[in-house]
Amino acid sequence: MTALTCRFIKLADGLLRGAQVTVCRVGAALQRAPVIQCIRTHRTNTWWDEHLTEDNPWPRHEWAEGSRRVGLVAVKLGMMPVWSKSGERHVVTMLQVQDCHVVKHLSKEEYNGRTAALIVGGKNISPFHRPEGYLEVFRNAGVPPKQKLTTFCVSDNAIIKPGTPLYAAHFCPGQYVDVTAKTIGKGFQGVMKRWGFKGQPASHGQTKTHRRPGSLGPGGDPAKVFKGKKMPGRMGNIYDTNHGLKVWRVNTKYNILYINGSVPGHRNCLVKVRDSILPTRLENNKNPPFPTFFADGDKELPEDLFDEDVFQFGQPMPE
Amino acid sequence: MAAVCTSRTRQMMGLLRILRNFSQNERLLSTSVLRHNVASDGPPKFTPPSKPVIIDKTQKEASLRRFLSPEFIPPRQRTNPVKFSIERKDMIQRRKVLNIPEFYAGSILAVTMTDPHVNGNLNRFVGICIQRSGKGLGATFILRNVVDGQGVEICYELYSPRMRKIEVLKLEKRLDDNLMYLRDALPEYSTFNFDMQPVHYEITGDVPVNLLKVKMRPKPWSKRWERPKFNIKGIRFDLCLTPEMMEHAQKWAEPWRPYDMLKEYDTSSLEEHIFKEVHENLRK
């Protein structure tokens, strides 16, 4: 174990409330290294600077074929049209990434024995009216409590330190994503709406039978109704995924993703966005920001990132 | 009249005096600046004169008609206002490139669009605007005309990149916002000449309202326009319906509608904010 001299200095809160400075005392260069105090404004019991030590347990690797990286949790804002340069109109859903943080890291052994996992949290919510056990995870990560927590299976070279914020620039325009969310609940629905049955004719002698399922299966041989028979019941309010949705545009100022087509869920619902697993879309997802887009300040992104096909309104007309 | 003239002349004299003073000062300043430059660097750099700003002083800004296009007003929904503000930015960017004039349902427009299937690539259509619908970037308007005896309606998107030019040939309002009943009216009310010349309209004051009441073809119509839910004032019902039929149509009246508080949507403050925002950004 190297000389890990990470000591935290607790100064009077009144002095440095609101100040945020980082401590780095690395190994041998004790006397010469600049000492800056670090205080977090929300009082946490644990914090660490493992990424600043020599054996950094959270290294940043380069993207390689077959590696899986994290996804994001976003809020569905609404939909709007987008035109391509050839004049075709497509509809896009706007997903805003609000306060997305990595909350926990589960190693291969803890999770399922095959891949590591990262738990990511979405929108910030108040810590009140929530059970203690739920808030504990966030306290350990040093992050405000989130409304939605999702797990992403991640390859070992893509693990991220808990507490890192995730931004919309994690996805590039032109790439394909899968979006998972809870569908709009429709309540108890009949068989025509729920399963798309044809029903019966409206007239020509039908007695009280217009939207009924009709026959429930074959007759005397099984002499039973098979399990899983499509019948009326509660529809919606289940998790559903839309695969292979193209990212047309990314707004880095407000952290908004413009994703092709529609996405399950109502307005202002939380969705899980991750890189597409469709084999035909793997080519478009090459060389993404890996393991994620870090806003370290060295690279200034423009406010809007467009796909090459998108017609941008300020530009001159293409035809 | 004489009093006004004299006061005006007095003002003008005052202004002239001030201007003269200013011009003298400017001259002094300019020469001093030139001398200063000559002293420090060699021949002075050529600074082009500032472009003249043409301010139309005959009409004050307050008297110009304040028109906010209806697609800017967000619908009554539980949506995050961020979504509307971002859409508005895109709309303003598009408006800086393409001039979308003020028009209402009942105005006659000429629209030029790019069309890959036409020889000259451009396609021009003239018609009366019968409906303006949609909010945000997907706002549309429908133009109707009768070409060779065939009624034609084309739905255009205001912010489509294929739009080249939108000209208002005649700006006017009608008694209704939605003129879909022109489909069941006599064709003379929907025919407009393609070579119609633009009629001059004022930028100040109110938009002229055409109180035309349209004569209809015999029933059946595509929709029961006499029913109170459409609230149409621009049809001559006395020529096509008996008073008994009018009374029968009143059965579908919903007199509680104007008192339904859940359907109230007061957009006056929203409109003002959005109007200011749009005009500031368009001027930039």
Q: Any overview of this molecule?
A:
Chain B: Belongs to the bacterial ribosomal protein bL19 family. Chain B: It is found in: Mitochondrion. Chain B: Keywords: Mitochondrion, Ribonucleoprotein, Ribosomal protein, Transit peptide. Chain B: One of its GO terms (molecular function) is structural constituent of ribosome. With 319 residues, chain A is mainly β. Helices cover 7% and strands 25% of the residues of chain A. Chain A has helices at 13-16, 108-111, 132-141, 191-195, and strands at residues 72-83, 89-96, 100-106, 116-121, 149-154, 165-166, 176-182, 187-189, 233-235, 239-251, 256-260, 270-275, 304-306. In chain A, strands 1-2-11-10-7-12 form a 6-stranded antiparallel barrel. In chain A, a hairpin with a 4-residue loop joins strand 10 and strand 11 (256-260). The model of chain A is unreliable at 1-31 and 40-46 (pLDDT under 50). Chain B has a single domain (81-283), classed as SH3 type barrels. In chain B, 30% of the residues lie in helices and 15% in strands. Chain B contains 5 helices and 5 strands. Chain B has a 5-stranded antiparallel sheet, with no helix packed on it. The radius of gyration of chain B is 27 Å and the shape is globular. Chain B starts with a helix and ends with a helix. Mean pLDDT of chain B is 85; it is low at 22-39. The chains are: A mainly beta (319), B alpha+beta (284). The A-B interface holds A 75, 77-78, 80-81, 83, 87, 89, 94, 96, 251, 254, 256, 267-268, 311, 313-314, 316-319 and B 77-80, 82-83, 86-87, 90, 93-94, 96-97, 114, 116, 121, 136-138, 157, 159-162, 164.
